[in-house]
Specification:
This is Metal-dependent phosphohydrolase. It is a single chain. The chain is rod-shaped and about 170 Å long. The chain folds into 3 domains: 24-58 and 331-520, no CATH class; 106-192 and 227-270, no CATH class; 533-751, Hypothetical protein af1432, CATH 1.10.3210. The chain has a 4-stranded mixed sheet with strand order 4-3-2-5. The chain has 30 helices and 6 strands. The longest helix has 32 residues, at 487-518. Helices cover 63% and strands 4% of the residues.
Length: 761
């Protein structure tokens, strides 16, 4: 006792009564660890990546195809769009205005002049006016017909005589040749277009491009009137007449001027040939040079009328208006908006992190598990943003995430993640409240239906049920939001239902990959794994039949006990099948496989015996890994003994020490299993059932009272030993487990009526 007058020191007692940390303190404590900086860095990177993928520096466009605007939509800023009709008209006009290309061949004109000179030479050198001379001379005069009177032969002969006299003058022939050549020179460079070439001309241009081929090829633009044959003849007559009159030196040679004029008119060739390929190139250049015509919309113009569903053309117009609005936003506005979006990402992430700290801290203790949650969640937001913008199919990807989280973690966590992801998609993609309600309701229906997946048809039925919810929710909420009840709205709601059904089908295909990636087991996989024909179970039955029988009994008892506390009874049953497979390597060292007269531990040191007994945990885990059993089953093998004491050999060793004081003191740590302690309620259930079933075999008369007392003793011993400290098992659940195990063991070891005629075996 403390001396009188001096108060007792109660510091330690006050400290021991300190309350455990609250949720906020636990959250801060989790994030304050140095290794959590990497987790925060991953979250920061994910938020920035989503910011980039979703273009979150600008507000999203809010309109979608099929939406019926209640009022006219006016642009927020002036913008312009390409006027395709006006541009097409301008291109047609430019094509018509493009100049045709002709190739000029001046040698044809030179050939005509040479022939004229040759005929004049033949006429002037003729001795008499015979038939051949008459034929040549008649080329210079029109043929008689109903409009032209026949010529007088004597008059023609007189004109021929005058022609000879004229050209018999010295140098007259050369002068005549030079005069004709001088008159034709301008037209040789420009070219002459015959009527048939005029018909081939394309477009309505008043000018053409003339390319003169020769040693010095040149290209020039010439008016069409300057090359037409009829116009050329009119322009050629005057210079030709002037040149011939110069030769006459005042003498009347009208007959010669008229004759040459007629011959030239009759024999003037076309020197231009239409070049279709070059013309096509010129027309294409003209079309390419046309700039697109822009239609300008002011803020007073109505871009879209009211009361009609938005079609593709109107939606493209609204996208152009939205782009123009985003382009005129200032850097400050974009920065503020970006910070708001990033803040939303971090707020939603913090909400999920708080839940993880409180309900599922293991995700925040393993980087791989954390990334397996973070990456799919961020990918769902990115794909949801992309799908919403194109097909409004964000419900499909969010529903797949909801079902995955529900399978891997917990249903209530799936509801939280679904709400956060849906909100992020709606705010980044510009979807309406209708989309958010549709996605949230559909995913909630799917999540709440994901109770037990004992067949692959389950996911298909979940998809069908979610499809009904998606259809009804989208249609009903759209009407409440003011959309008219049209066939278009019905079709849109049907698409939402189809997307939900598609998500259920996809999840059926993805389920094996989800199980492998997350290391989890659904009821489907557990039923397949718990088949008695499994090779490991077959070997266990052959090598250690007593252990196999023990495992089957424990599995039945543990499944009922787990179901009583709403744990996964099927998982416990399959885990119980495999929990002692390590014993098949040395079955003779375990009592259930020994004969009454044969005990391998006789003569062994208790410490050595303990090592043999403990080794079955490590051996079992190694066998499980070699046979590629899932991680959850390996956990049962490693945790079903926790860090409990191998009590029998520990007592034997202690008894030796008491009998022989010279013996070294017994180290209790040597006689304990390596652990770890049970990390889940299912592992704790298996620990209790394994210990109790083995102990019940030692009862002489396993009455209900004795079984109940044994269950109470063994379970409380493990509770006080701290074996349940890390699995979250409550005292109420422990009591329910005790009750269930007692009932099951009583049924197994029930008493039998002894018949009078029975003889002892």
């Amino acid at each position: 006792m403390a001396p009188p007058g001096k108060p007792r020191k109660r510091g330690k007692r006050v400290q021991s009564l300190e309350l455990p940390p609250g949720t906020f303190r636990r959250f801060v404590s989790e994030l304050s660890h140095p290794d959590k900086l990497l987790y925060l860095a991953c979250a920061l990177f994910a938020a920035v990546a989503l910011w980039l993928v979703t273009g979150a520096w600008n507000p999203p466009m809010q309109y979608r195809q099929g939406y019926v605007p209640p009022a006219e939509i006016h642009p927020r800023v002036q913008f312009s769009v390409d006027d395709d009709l006006a541009t097409a008209k301008a291109q047609r006009d430019a094509e018509n205005a493009a100049m045709s290309v002709y190739v000029n061949d001046p040698t044809r004109l030179e050939q005509m002049r040479t022939r004229l000179q040759t005929i004049i030479n033949q006429l002037t050198q003729a001795k008499q006016f015979d038939a051949e001379v008459e034929r040549l001379w008649n080329e210079f005069f029109p043929i008689a017909d109903e409009n032209v009177a026949p010529a007088d032969p004597m008059e023609r002969q007189q004109q021929f005589t005058r022609l000879k006299e004229l050209f018999q003058r010295e140098g007259m022939l050369n002068a005549f040749q030079q005069s004709v050549e001088e008159a034709l020179r301008p037209f040789a460079s420009r070219g002459i277009m015959s009527p048939d070439q005029v018909e081939q001309k394309e477009g309505q241009a008043a000018s053409i491009i003339v390319i003169t081929v020769g040693p010095n090829t040149n290209q020039q633009i010439i008016s069409l009137n300057d090359v037409l044959r009829a116009q050329v003849l009119e322009k050629l007559r005057r210079p030709l007449k002037n040149e011939l009159e110069k030769l006459a030196k005042g003498e009347d040679i009208t007959f010669l001027v008229e004759a040459v004029d007629f011959w030239v008119e009759k024999n003037l060739p076309g020197t231009l040939t239409f070049d279709r390929a070059a013309t096509t190139v010129e027309r294409e250049k003209a079309v390419a040079a046309v700039e697109k015509v822009q239609h300008i919309y002011s803020t007073k113009d109505a871009v879209v009328p009211a009361g009609a569903p938005l079609n593709g053309q109107e939606l493209a117009l609204l996208r152009r208006e939205h782009q123009a609005y985003c382009d005129q936003r200032s850097f400050f506005s974009k920065t503020i908006y970006s910070l708001a979006i990033l803040g939303m990402y971090y707020a939603l992430g913090a909400l999920c992190a708080i839940y993880l700290v409180v309900k599922c801290p293991r995700i925040l203790r393993d980087l791989n598990e954390y990334l397996l949650f973070l990456v799919p969640t961020c990918m769902t937001i990115a794909f949801g943003y992309w799908f919403d913008d194109r097909w409004q199919a964000e419900v499909m990807v969010v529903m797949i995430l909801a079902m995955t989280v529900s399978i891997v973690y917990q249903q209530e966590f799936a509801l939280l993640v679904t709400a956060c992801v849906s909100l992020a998609i709606v705010l980044t993609s510009g979807s309406s409240l209708v989309s958010f309600v549709t996605v949230a309701a559909t995913c909630s229906a799917a999540t709440l239906s994901m109770t037990r997946i004992r067949s692959r048809n389950k996911l298909l039925f979940v998809g069908l049920w979610a499809g009904v919810v998606a259809f009804a929710t989208n249609y009903g909420v759209s009407i409440v939001a003011g959309q008219p009840a049209t066939l278009t709205l019905l079709e849109s709601a049907a698409w939402q239902g189809a997307y939900a059904v598609a998500a259920g089908i996809l999840m059926t295909v993805l389920l094996p990959f989800v199980e492998k990636a997350y290391g989890i087991l659904t009821d489907i996989s557990l039923l397949e794994l718990g088949d008695a024909a499994h090779p490991l179970l077959q070997k266990l039955a052959q090598r250690a039949p007593g252990t196999y029988n023990h495992s089957i009994t424990v599995a039945s008892i543990a499944e009922s006990a787990a179901d009583s506390i709403r744990a996964n009874g099927l998982l416990v049953r399959v885990g119980a099948y495999f929990h002692d497979i390590g014993k098949m390597l040395k079955p003779e060292y375990f009592v259930e496989n020994q004969n009454a007269s044969d005990n391998r531990h006789d003569g062994l040191n208790p410490a050595i015996s303990t090592l043999v007994i403990i080794a079955h945990v490590k051996d079992g885990a190694d066998l499980a890994r070699q046979n590629r059993l899932p991680r959850a089953i390996i956990d049962f093998i490693e945790q079903h003994h926790g860090t409990t004491l191998v009590e029998y050999f520990y007592r034997v060793a202690s008894a030796k020490v008491e009998a022989n004081p010279d013996e070294r003191e017994v180290d209790e740590a040597i006689y304990r299993y390596p652990g770890p302690k049970p990390q889940t309620k299912e592992a704790a259930v298996l620990m209790i059932c394994d210990a109790v079933e083995s102990a019940c075999r030692t009862l002489v008369e396993p009455t209900s009272a004795r079984i109940e007392a044994l269950v109470e003793e063994l379970s409380m011993k493990r509770l006080l030993d701290g074996q349940f400290d890390e699995c979250g098992l409550t005292l109420q659940e422990l009591r329910q487990i005790q009750t269930s195990v007692t009932k099951s063991l009583t049924a197994v070891y029930h008493g039998r009526v002894k018949y009078p005629s029975s003889q002892p075996a």
